[in-house]
Design brief:
- The complex is a heterodimer of chains A (279) and B (268).
- Chain A is of the alpha/beta class and 279 residues long.
- Chain A folds into two domains: 212 residues, 3-Layer(aba) Sandwich (Glutaconate Coenzyme A-transferase); 52 residues, no CATH class.
- In chain A, 33% of the residues lie in helices and 23% in strands.
- In chain A, strands 1, 2, 3, 6, 10, 11, 12, 13 and 14 form a nine-stranded mixed sheet that branches.
- In chain A, β2, α3 and β3 form a beta-alpha-beta unit.
- In chain A, α1 crosses α2 and α2 packs parallel to α3.
- Chain A starts with a helix and ends in a 5-residue tail after the last helix.
- By secondary structure, chain B is an alpha/beta fold.
- Chain B has one domain: Glutaconate Coenzyme A-transferase (3-Layer(aba) Sandwich).
- Chain B has eight helices and 14 strands.
- In chain B, the strands form three sheets. Chain B has a ten-stranded mixed sheet with strand order 4-3-2-1-5-10-11-12-13-14, sandwiched between helices. A two-stranded antiparallel sheet of chain B has the order 6-7.
- In chain B, β13, α7 and β14 form a beta-alpha-beta unit.
- In chain B, α1 packs across α2.
- Classes of the chains: A alpha/beta (279), B alpha/beta (268).
- Chains A and B meet through β5, α4, α5, α6 and α8 of A and α3, α4, β9, α5 and α8 of B.
């Protein structure tokens, strides 16, 4: 199925949507298609919002964000994310903020059918104080230890990018996984974009393979993780991450850039050519 | 600062020297990552580096821009899912040192990485704490590296993101934290360490050409000077050379354009 059709069919206004992939395999092509199809009111979930959520938030797709670290890695702020939280532009954005470990156990809980995830707990931080109802202390019935509980994450849709799909539709993810597998297993429906289709996956027994019957649709989108990367296919475009800081700093330049690049391109291949990354 | 090296270099070399060979270190991105990789390339070849992307025992040749650059995975002993690195490695107590930075620190080594101003209506929304609250809790000890100014070394944090010694005087220990807390704060003036009794950070050492008065003026609380206060020697020439080579390789790698090979277009 084409990516445009997959997004049209499976991603709807107001849903909880997680595009996962920790720095690696971030599904940029899918995020751009959500922007092109003008989805609104999304509750975006992602450990590290990264440039893709900066773009989706700046283009007005989201009203809520669940996250644990919202910067441009190694560069600084995500200016569109900041503008939405600090000044409500283009729309107010409410947040559900957690630590990395808490996001990890929340996805694991969601993937396991449990209502909450647990971490050990010793003292309340201001994050605990700002999120009454979204984190709570719990006493272990066996040891009497105090634990911190955070609600499970169960996205309506989780979207991943991966290296390969085989003829049956099984998907192989190689390299840094982040919480991709847990986010997929926690979701009601899973969309995947991949670099290529192959006859058979050359996957060792313990590789990260998502079986075909867990996945709603797979779309072949080469370069679909750019400007993040796909191990074994292409490297992270660190130059683009550095340049994004200036592009996203002011509202007008950001909107102009998005129109000239993402909206002016019919699909991801066109965008990559426009950016000079592909021939 | 005297000629021959920059304040950044002095700071990074000093930070690297705090790491012991053979220890297991959970690395934050930026200044901590540079210091950890300098240490691994000089006096601590057996240092085990873990990045929160799940790369365990990684030996990058160039500094990663992000915590999940491909270089980290390609040179790692193993790559584990992120929930596992936090639960099985960090929370389970398998990390000796957490190496962090933050936007604000107070006299007890508590950290703010979240907001300046009120949380609901922030003046500046910072990126957030990510894994820092977890690392600051569970690593056996913590090293911090931050540039010092009255705006970053503050009397009172705008927001408590990660716990240091809390109110001091043994509070952290009484609450049963598994990790001991910050062992040292490396700044662009020198090194701050906690007092044994109160855990208040005090000035333990300064770099060549830096005075205690200058360091105290760049701190938002009345910074005490340690009884065993010392002047640090200039950085070793060999350390500087390794650090500069590391940065030269990194700059060259980051400037390399990315090319993606698309299959031949099958439509206009």
């Amino acid at each position: 199925m084409s990516l445009a059709e997959a997004i049209a069919r499976h991603v709807h206004d107001g849903q909880r949507v997680a595009l996962e992939g920790f720095t690696h395999l971030i599904p940029f092509a899918a995020g751009h298609e959500i922007i092109r199809q003008r989805r609104r009111g999304l509750h975006l979930i992602r450990m590290t919002p990264d440039i893709i959520y900066d773009q989706m938030i700046g283009m007005g797709c989201a009203t809520r964000l669940t996250f644990s670290w919202g910067g441009n890695p190694g560069v600084g702020s995500l200016h569109r994310l900041r503008d939405a939280i600090e000044r409500g532009w283009p729309a107010p954005l409410s947040t559900d903020e957690r630590t990395h470990a808490e996001m990890g156990v929340a996805y694991q809980a969601g993937a396991s059918g449990l209502p909450c995830g647990l971490t050990r707990h010793f003292a309340a931080t201001d994050l605990d104080r700002t999120r009454a109802g979204a984190a709570a202390e719990l006493t272990c019935p066996f040891s009497g230890e105090t634990l911190r509980a955070v609600p499970a994450l169960n996205p309506d849709v989780t979207i991943l990018h991966a290296q390969q799909v085989d003829r049956e539709g099984n998907v192989l993810i190689r390299g840094i996984l982040g919480a991709a597998r847990e986010a997929a297993l926690a979701a009601r429906s899973v969309l995947v974009t991949v670099e290529e289709q192959v006859e058979r996956l050359a996957a060792p027994a313990n590789a990260c393979v998502l079986p075909q019957w867990l996945i709603a649709t797979v779309s072949v989108v080469p370069g679909g993780a750019h400007p993040s990367y796909a191990a074994g296919c292409y490297q992270r475009d660190n130059r683009f991450y550095l340049e994004w800081d200036a592009i996203a700093r002011e509202r007008e330049r950001f909107e102009h850039w998005m129109h000239e690049h993402v909206l002016a391109s019919a699909d991801h291949a066109q965008l990559l050519r426009r950016l000079g990354v592909a021939q | 600062m005297s000629a021959g090296y920059s304040a950044y270099e002095m700071m990074t070399v000093t930070a690297a020297r705090q790491l012991r060979d053979g220890s297991v270190c959970f690395v934050g991105i930026g200044l901590p990552s540079a210091a950890c990789n300098l240490a691994r390339s000089t006096h601590a070849p057996g240092l085990v580096l873990i990045y929160e992307s799940g790369t365990v025992g990684t030996r990058p040749e160039v500094l990663p821009l992000s915590i999940g650059d491909g270089e980290l995975a390609e040179t790692a002993t193993c790559v584990v899912p992120l929930p596992e690195v936090f639960a099985h490695y960090l929370q389970r107590g398998r990390v000796d040192v957490g190496f962090l930075s933050a936007a604000q620190i107070d006299r007890f080594g508590n950290l703010n990485s979240t907001v300046i101003g009120a949380y609901a209506q922030p003046k500046v929304r910072l990126p957030g704490a990510g894994g820092a609250p977890d690392i600051a809790t569970f690593a056996r000890e913590v090293l911090l590296i931050m540039k010092q100014s009255p705006r970053t070394f503050v009397e009172r944090l705008d927001f408590l993101s990660s716990c240091g010694y809390l109110g001091g005087g043994g509070e952290r220990r009484r609450r049963g934290f598994p990790g001991r807390g910050p062992r040292a704060v490396i700044t662009d003036f020198g090194i701050l360490r906690p007092r044994d009794d109160s855990q208040e950070l005090e000035l333990a050492a300064v770099y060549p050409g830096v005075t205690a008065a200058a360091a105290r003026a760049a701190c938002g609380w009345p910074l005490a000077v340690a009884a065993d206060f010392a002047q640090l020697p200039p950085p070793e020439v060999a350390d500087l050379r390794v650090l500069r080579e590391l940065h030269a390789r990194t700059d060259a790698a980051h400037a390399r354009p990315v090319r993606i090979q698309l299959p031949p277009a099958n439509h206009s």
